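Consider the record:
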Amino acid sequence: MNFSSREREIITFLLNAEKDTTVKAIATELGVSIRTVHRDLKSIESLLSHYNLELKKKSGVGLHINGKKADKDAFQQAISNVTVVDFSPEERRTVILATLLEMNEPIKLFTLASELKVTEATISHDLDQLEQEVSLFHLTLIRKRGYGVEIVGNETDKRAALSDLIAKYVDPFEFVSLIKENIQKESAHQLNAISNRLLDFINPDRLNIIEKVVEDARDELPYELADSAHIGLVVHLALAIERLQKGETIKFDQTFLQQIETTKEYVIAKKMIEKLAVKLKQTIPEDEVGYITMHLMGAKVRVDQDYLLEESSIDIAFQARSLIHYVSTGVGVDLTNNSSLLHDLVAHLKPAIYRLQQNMRIVNPLLNNIRNDYLDLFQLIQDGVQETFPDMTFPEDEIGYLVLHFASTLLNDRKSDLRALVICSTGIGTAKMLSTKLSQKVPEVKHVDNRSFFDLKHLNLDSYDLIVSTIPLNGFEGKYIQTSPMLTNDEVHRIKKMVNQKKLTIHSNKATFQKEGTKKRDMMTELEALTNYSQAILDLLRSLHVQKMKDRQTMESILQVAMATFEREERIIHPNKIIKKLQEREKLSGLGIPGTSAALYHTRSKDIIQPIFSIFTLTYPLTIQGMDNESMTINTILLMLAPEKAQQEVLEVFSFLSSLLIQDEVSLRLFSSGDQEKVKNYLSEQYRTFLLEKNLL
């Protein structure tokens, strides 16, 4: 099995995707053209077939790898064990950098080119880019003709660069599982080629010993050690021991060492080094104790306030308060009296400042997610840190951790009263279903308006905090989330992510609004509203038909029977046009209600004269696509039809009906019972409550 590094990246991207993804998204992720991705996908399809997998493509939605989890896992393991035809440029530069950091002498360009199967000119170009990268670690890349290439600098900076590479390319959870399973054994848990290459620097026997010593030390710390800190400490010690084996030692600032000798972390670090010296039969310099102390001090995640105050200095607390004031001004929320935030910040800042003073890099594995999710807050805190700590440079990884502290506080403190716009093709039916689910699962959303796609151009969209749609909004340039009417967990997660972004929007001073229908009205307006609502409810109840289909039918034949009845009653014209609209609606997304045996067919059309609600029960069930895009069997069809230019009251009456359909199992069983009189009585009672809630009765 041969494939390029780019093909491997595409495969990994698809295997890790939680939902369908577009070719454009893949191209953007890889930084290549859409045509290139299409070309690679042809080769990938062939590879997939050998593992009983298939590349499923859905027009307008995207593509995904389809197959059993066991087959996907087998395929993932297979591609990780195969040497790829080529490394990507980034991977190649990573291998070059790791090799140079490991070497204690110059290496020829020819040697690197031969190993990586590229030309010396390519290696030379890679080195041009690496020069800037190593300078971030205060290292220098030396190149001389006839001499070769090497990286020079102090040992501390070389270790920092190696640690950074491992943190960047080795998944921490896979790293821990390999330690636990014994890295020397054949494990089903495989790492990718770059990960394997980087871990070659670490002796697996020593790694297990080191991990056990770190595990024992956790019990002695007065606070919990986060997984990321645990892994970082293991990697640091492993690299330290490897470098000591080669005679490479570090120097720790002796004045600073004296300052931290009285801390609890120093006592624990010293004990760890003594244990390692015995177990590894190796002399370990005192300077290493200083660095382990720094790792432990930087790993505080939950400390009680007494311990915090004991360890904290007044100047850092003062600077933390200044930062809180800066951020409070920026977000328009007063956080200056939040003692919990102050304590958390001081607990983080003290070891963070130690790390920065000693040029110790910290890697934040969540950095990209934090920056994407809270970009405004990230930039605000970045500016605030620069003003509060003018003599220090905080890297983005450190800023990311500070953002988490503020985001957590803001999300808990800030009261939300968000307004959502829900769109479906008609503005009735599934829109109300989605609205009901949205209110249930996202409590921050207090107000929901239901509209059709054609209403978009007439609405003031700035008055809404988010827009959710059950259909693609082709031609709409605004930001929206497309979901199923029943809201899957993944869709709820996406909406909550956007809600959190809204809650943390800087200077969000959106004007207050009044929900339609809540303004103070005069008596004449109330009487007009009551008349319109009453007429809409009466039209709907008079249109109610509950019909049992005894013969085997197709969906199209059922719709034809229904339209023939409505045409005779002069409620519609041009029945075939209405059937076509219903079928087009079904193609946009499924109409089966998940978790039930019912389907909701609905549309608005100029060929519909009066509102219609009818129920068809089937003797012979049909299989259709559900709103969650899964195939399902139905024995009840709920049909809702409204005029294209229906009054707002008519649409509200229909929307209320839609919410009743999914209110609970009792109501749904009633609609599926085939008892027309019971359905009509139930609806009459519910609409009376509807009018009472609007203060119209």
Notes: The CA atoms of residues 200 and 690 lie 70 Å apart. The radius of gyration is 32 Å.
